[in-house]
Amino acid sequence: MKLTLTFLTVQCLVAHVAAQSLSAVLSSQKNLTSLNELLTGQLSQLVDELERHDLNEDPITLLAPSNQAFDTLPNVQTIGQAVSDNNTAELENILRYHVLPGIHSSQTLNSSFAFYPSLLTAQNFTNVTGGQRVGAVLQSGTPPEIVFLSGQGTRSAVSKQDIPFKGGVIQQIDAFAIPPLPFVDTAATYNLADGAQSITSFLGAVYAQSNASLPRLLNTTSDVTIFAPANVAFELVRGALTSLPSRALNDILSYHVVPSNVGPTYSSNFTNATTLRTLQGQNLTMSFSSNSYFLNSARILTTDILIANGVIHIIDNVVSPNSTAALPNPETYTQAPILPTTGVINFNSSAAPFTTFVPGYVPSSTSETASFSTDSASVSGGDMLATASSSSTRSASSGAASPSESVTSSASRVHSKMGFDWVFGILTAGGLFVGAWMAC
Ligand SMILES: *[C@@H]1O[C@H](CO)[C@@H](O)[C@H](O)[C@H]1NC(C)=O
Ligand SMILES: *[C@@H]1O[C@H](CO)[C@@H](O)[C@H](O)[C@H]1NC(C)=O
Ligand SMILES: *[C@@H]1O[C@H](CO)[C@@H](O)[C@H](O)[C@H]1NC(C)=O
Ligand SMILES: *[C@@H]1O[C@H](CO)[C@@H](O)[C@H](O)[C@H]1NC(C)=O
Ligand SMILES: *[C@@H]1O[C@H](CO)[C@@H](O)[C@H](O)[C@H]1NC(C)=O
Ligand SMILES: *[C@@H]1O[C@H](CO)[C@@H](O)[C@H](O)[C@H]1NC(C)=O
Ligand SMILES: *[C@@H]1O[C@H](CO)[C@@H](O)[C@H](O)[C@H]1NC(C)=O
Ligand SMILES: *[C@@H]1O[C@H](CO)[C@@H](O)[C@H](O)[C@H]1NC(C)=O
Ligand SMILES: *[C@@H]1O[C@H](CO)[C@@H](O)[C@H](O)[C@H]1NC(C)=O
Ligand SMILES: *[C@@H]1O[C@H](CO)[C@@H](O)[C@H](O)[C@H]1NC(C)=O
Ligand SMILES: *[C@@H]1O[C@H](CO)[C@@H](O)[C@H](O)[C@H]1NC(C)=O
Ligand SMILES: *[C@@H]1O[C@H](CO)[C@@H](O)[C@H](O)[C@H]1NC(C)=O
């Protein structure tokens, strides 16, 4: 019923234009000439494939990067490289990430984030059952915007366009959707501009063990969901964690990982009072109260950091399989640690426990950290961006933006419920979002 309505809406739109082919519509759009050139010049097989889709049978939504998006290309990891190498296979994969089966328009989306499979399925690029996902939400405002969420927290906006074509709908986006990177690359660079949300401690802890089974699994298993405690959560229980026998540390870490064979658990999958079976074997209990989701006693701070083989959510506490019954106290912003704590007065996210074990770790150079601002919208150094985004062996410590951050200030940060609290990393900072910034 709902689907029928959707198609009718689009068909109404289409009725005005007569059903034009994708190529015809693309070549009539002034802001899509670069995309059109790439598709017709180099990816004609993909175009042929897309042209075979039919509005009534198997419609698609094409996220079409504008000329402006092409102009900012070289700064973006993966994409910039593929373009400068003129690597047709990679370019095709990148473009496949921009095609979503189904109609995703201002008529079908609402204010809840949803995650849709794309045509990107190449396993060396992504490993999510059914194709790598793109998040989408209809953001109220004047005019209302559709926002697409991709790798590295990148958001691409479109002002309610819904350009119809014979096989579905085109949404012109102002920045490329970035195919999510592997776990290590994402965790090592996530939130360089905001140490309070860095997760290099979790990443380092995974690599601190002599047992390579967990690192391998996080690299190559499909559909993983990782609940990564923020660095400050590790700092709070530093003493307890660093003195654990390796078996117990491994248990704790794998208690933060949820495997699946039906796709990752995105924020749109969260439900109150459900259990998630972890890699460690015991369950995590998810609950919803006071406008937040919790896992056992940990509050979920940031949702939906897409990675090549799944998704990461950031939590404010280390959880333990020895405290599966720990309950949240929704009245307080931060949750009481479940392990013995050592005091934290001034917190330097770069020096959080285990960060020296991050793959490719090199000690920080202080000049670099000083240049970042937590207001990522104001960061504009093109050179800095290129450096930060092209290095996958980046140092954990140079990644953190603020040289030191107090626990109270990070803890009192206000987060909204469903993933609007992305304080963007450097990748998005470099001008990917032109005029489409949402401060929620
Ligand atoms: C085309 O792009 C320009 C800026 O690059 C923008 O001002 C204009 O609104 C865009 N037109 C459409 C139809 O999106
Ligand atoms: C990229 O490669 C294609 C062939 O694969 C070629 O037609 C095109 O001219 C090349 N583009 C550039 C900018 O070198
Ligand atoms: C992924 O595999 C395709 C062939 O299936 C190849 O063309 C492409 O270069 C590979 N990409 C990477 C990142 O290895
Ligand atoms: C948005 O739509 C989905 C299904 O399409 C529905 O489950 C959800 O409740 C809707 N959310 C809102 C806020 O209307
Ligand atoms: C290594 O880790 C895996 C899974 O995390 C576990 O099953 C295995 O027993 C561990 N091996 C050792 C020697 O600790
Ligand atoms: C996992 O992948 C990263 C690069 O993404 C690499 O540095 C690391 O060595 C890999 N780890 C294992 C155990 O394969
Ligand atoms: C993708 O996931 C499957 C299932 O977990 C695994 O067997 C495969 O090795 C993974 N592929 C890559 C390239 O990581
Ligand atoms: C859980 O408790 C048992 C028994 O006290 C202990 O041996 C084990 O190390 C603990 N595991 C963790 C992850 O703390
Ligand atoms: C998440 O929700 C989607 C859409 O309802 C569903 O297909 C998928 O199986 C769910 N994932 C998990 C892990 O339950
Ligand atoms: C969540 O589930 C618990 C346990 O079933 C219930 O007591 C509570 O009212 C539920 N909360 C909401 C917001 O539905
Ligand atoms: C985990 O939860 C499932 C239900 O989701 C239940 O069947 C299972 O017994 C639980 N496992 C443990 C170890 O409590
Ligand atoms: C934070 O820690 C890093 C890495 O240990 C160090 O290089 C940096 O100087 C520290 N910053 C402050 C302000 O102490």
TrEMBL record:
<dbReference type="InterPro" id="IPR000782">
    <property type="entry name" value="FAS1_domain"/>
</dbReference>
<keyword id="KW-0732">Signal</keyword>
<feature type="transmembrane region" description="Helical">
    <location>
        <begin position="419"/>
        <end position="439"/>
    </location>
</feature>
<keyword id="KW-0812">Transmembrane</keyword>
<dbReference type="InterPro" id="IPR036378">
    <property type="entry name" value="FAS1_dom_sf"/>
</dbReference>
<dbReference type="GO" id="GO:0000329">
    <property type="term" value="C:fungal-type vacuole membrane"/>
</dbReference>
<dbReference type="Pfam" id="PF02469">
    <property type="entry name" value="Fasciclin"/>
</dbReference>
<feature type="signal peptide">
    <location>
        <begin position="1"/>
        <end position="19"/>
    </location>
</feature>
<dbReference type="InterPro" id="IPR050904">
    <property type="entry name" value="Adhesion/Biosynth-related"/>
</dbReference>
<protein>
    <recommendedName>
        <fullName>FAS1 domain-containing protein</fullName>
    </recommendedName>
</protein>
<keyword id="KW-0472">Membrane</keyword>
<feature type="domain" description="FAS1">
    <location>
        <begin position="186"/>
        <end position="319"/>
    </location>
</feature>
<dbReference type="GO" id="GO:0016236">
    <property type="term" value="P:macroautophagy"/>
</dbReference>
<keyword id="KW-1133">Transmembrane helix</keyword>
<feature type="domain" description="FAS1">
    <location>
        <begin position="19"/>
        <end position="177"/>
    </location>
</feature>
